[in-house]
Amino acid sequence: MSNLLRQSLNGAPPPPRPRPLPLSSSALSDLDEHSSSDSSTSSVDSSASVNTLRPSSREQSAPPGHWTNYFSQELYLDQEDERQKARYHVYLTPPTDVQKGPLFICHHGAGASGLSFAVFAKHICQRLPGAGILSLEARAHGSTVTDIETGNQITDFSLATLTSDALAMITLTQHHLSWPTLPPSILIGHSLGGAIATQLAVDYALGHALLGYTVIDVVEGSALEALAHMKTYLSSRPTTFNTVDEAITWHTRTRTIRHAESAHVSVPSLLIQQPTSGGKFTWRTDLAATSPWWEEWFHGMSAKFLAGRGAKELILAGTDRLDRELMIGQMQGKFQLVVIPEAGHFVQEDVPERVAGLLVEFFKRNDRSALVLPPKVSELLARGEKV
Question: Where along the chain is composition biased (Pro residues) (predicted)?
Fold first, then answer.
């Protein structure tokens, strides 16, 4: 999609992640103005460990934009095998009732971070108290995967590898929290994350726990067309920022992100400070390094989206069009389509409350625990009722 290139890939290479910095009063003014697969195939082994960071009640209140205002836990999930060493990074608010859920599992787009779902997560919990949110971060976007022998980061951004990483994060989170089973879950993927969520659904990776999946602002046909302009887009955006405030202002003024709070929360996580360049900030993710896999991410996505198990929802910004395969599928009632014309490519950041409302409704329509089956004929006869 055209927006995929102009707005999508806001770069982001790996923990420890710098904490979001409070904005200056001038930056705040600018913002106001612009206002499978099972677990055995995910290479999980007994050496996996988890480091959990939780806010202390004795600490001072977190500044605006800090992750603790949106999630209850930040997890670093360590996993090692004979070939690689991974440290996965996720944000989590567990569901109150694991048996009932729901757990909304979110995956960001290329160049973004788990905090692109932060404001969305806040609105989910306001609308559906007790719901859980798990926001994953891909390798080189907050998670790191290194070669066990050399210690160098493994440069593999294939869809299969990114999907395996996502499943590993979900499985490790389940093990860490000692959930006997995965809660009833909704997969949510934005852009590249939509391709990963779709692949998880096609692979039946979450088994019966998956209620459905929602793909945000990515359609195979327009995404593949847009890739031709990707390198031009990457060369046209700034390579460095003097301050975090400057980066936030750039995102809002270019309308890459159209919601002030969303930009304040997510943009700092896209950057890393470089002491060797006078303390300037650069993109955390080298998106050019992912270019060999761009076409593979989206090729065949429409067919997989329609074939995956579970309820399906597609949320698009106003400039996107369905390709022929999806148009036929929509006419056949195979998925729900929602178009939000006021949003840019980062739909869940531009209109987080609207998207949260759509996802809560999507869950309620597909909540199996809410199904009420009619009584059996034998039961009616036993009660002496006419049939």
Answer: 12-21
Partner residues linked to 210 by β-bridges? 185
Rounded to an integer, what distance in angstroms lies between the CA atom of residue 130 and that of residue 143?
A: 27
Task: Give CA–CA dist 200/42, Å, rounded.
Answer: 12
- Provide the residue ranges of all domains of the chain, joining segments of one domain with +: 2-382
Q: Is the pTM of this model over 0.85?
A: no
For the chain, the C-alpha Rg in angstroms (whole number) is 21
Q: What sections of 59-100 are H helices per DSSP?
A: none
Q: How confident is the model at residue 27 (pLDDT cuts 50, 70, 90)?
A: very low
Q: Strand ranges (DSSP E) for 232-384? A: 240-241, 271-274, 280-283, 311-317, 336-340
Dihedral, 250, 255, 257, 261 alpha carbons, nearest 10: 80
Q: Produce one character per residue of 205-233: b if its CB has 16 or more CB atoms within 10 Å, e if not.
A: bbeebbbbbbbbbbbbbbbbebeeebeeb
Asked whether 228 and 4 are in contact (CB, 8 A), the reply is no
Q: How many CB atoms lie within 10 A of CB 131?
A: 26
In Å, how far are 17, 65, 89, 155, 332 from 286, measured between CA atoms? Answer: 16, 24, 18, 11, 40
Closest CA relative to residue 72, chosen from 122, 26, 127 = 122
CATH fold label, 2-382: Rossmann fold (3.40.50)
Residue 82: what are its φ and ψ, rounded to 5°? Answer: -70, -15
pLDDT tens digits, 55-64: 544 455 677 7
pLDDT 10s digits, 158-192: 999 999 999 999 999 999 999 999 999 999 999 99
For the chain, give the longest Cα–Cα distance.
85
pLDDT in tens, 304-353: 999 998 999 999 997 557 888 999 999 999 999 999 999 999 999 999 99
